[in-house]
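Feature request, filed as a ticket because there's no other form

It would be nice if the structure record came with a short human-readable summary line next to the tokens. Right now we just get the raw output. Example of a typical job, pasted below so the devs can see what we mean:
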Amino acid sequence: MSALISDQPSASPSRWLRALGTAVLLVLLLHVIVTSVLFVDETEFVIVETLGRIVAVYDRVDPSRSDRGLHLKFPWPVGTVRRFDRRQQLFDPPGREMFTRDKKNVTVSSYLCWKIADPPAGEVPLLERPVVKFFQGLGTIETAESRLEARVRSALEIELGQVELLQLLHVGTTDGGPDGDSPLGQISRSALDQLRGQVEAESSTSRLGIELVDLRIKRINLPEGNRQAVYERMRTERERIAERYRSAGLAEKSRIESQARRQSDELLARAEADAERIRGEGEADAIRILNRAHAQDPEFYEFQRTLATYSRVLSDKTTLVLSSGSRLFKLLTEGVPPPSVKPVEPTARKELPEEPSDSPVIELPEPAREPN
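Raw output as currently delivered:
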């Protein structure tokens, strides 16, 4: 019994050490298994290093030979993994003060869209891959954007120095902003072409490995110090231009009004002349027809005029004082005289033109009133 009691304390530390060793081995085994498996996502490029040397690059995104998914490598720390985002990056640097060609300083805010370049088609050595160039030349996205900021500012300063401020602020319509053909759009495209040329020229030496997608100017402001002075100058210039347009418009208005008035007077004068001519012709025709009618039966015409005179002068309260030789008195006392029939010669009848059935009714003028 004493021997058993004396052996138990010495056996307990050995079991504890074996258990600790087993746990360490399990942790090491788990670590080896976990760090030996690599998963490449669709949104990233991956570089695998073994003892500091690049041994694998997973940057193929073509579906026919894509390298996305699970891969094996040496466990950490022998094998290390570096991941880079392959999606487009939006770099929005702060606004910088720049000068135009007419020495006007403006604050320009722009943004640059860029990404790590995709690998070219075919087999390319590992050290020539764009993501490897980016890793060796820049390392991180922050470093790349700090270098791109200086290049973007330099390119915009060069392009802005070739245009004036009024050209820079010109828009096609009052309701819309600058379009693709505006000076801002042209400056953005020229600066982007300049930056792409620099990147392509320096890719073999500085090993950038990036691709510039787009460059745009999003805002142009005036510095606080001279903003009010520039606004006043712009307002004065616009007022001068508006006054010139207004004067030209008033002159054109006067010319159009005078021309319209002259044409109106000519049309009215021509219309009045035509009206007088037509009226004279109508009156002449009326007199000619009236004379022809009177010539056919003068006695009947005289009788008709006498009756018309009666209808005008006689009423319930009319008192007439007539002489015995007056025609009105004879008609009242003697009555209607018998008609005198005159033979009409055939030749005379032929001289009178036949009246059309639809000829207008001609009203004869009223006879003059006989004196009392």
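Something like this underneath would help us a lot:
The chain has three domains: 19-84, 88-223, 227-309.
The two ends are 185 Å apart (CA to CA).
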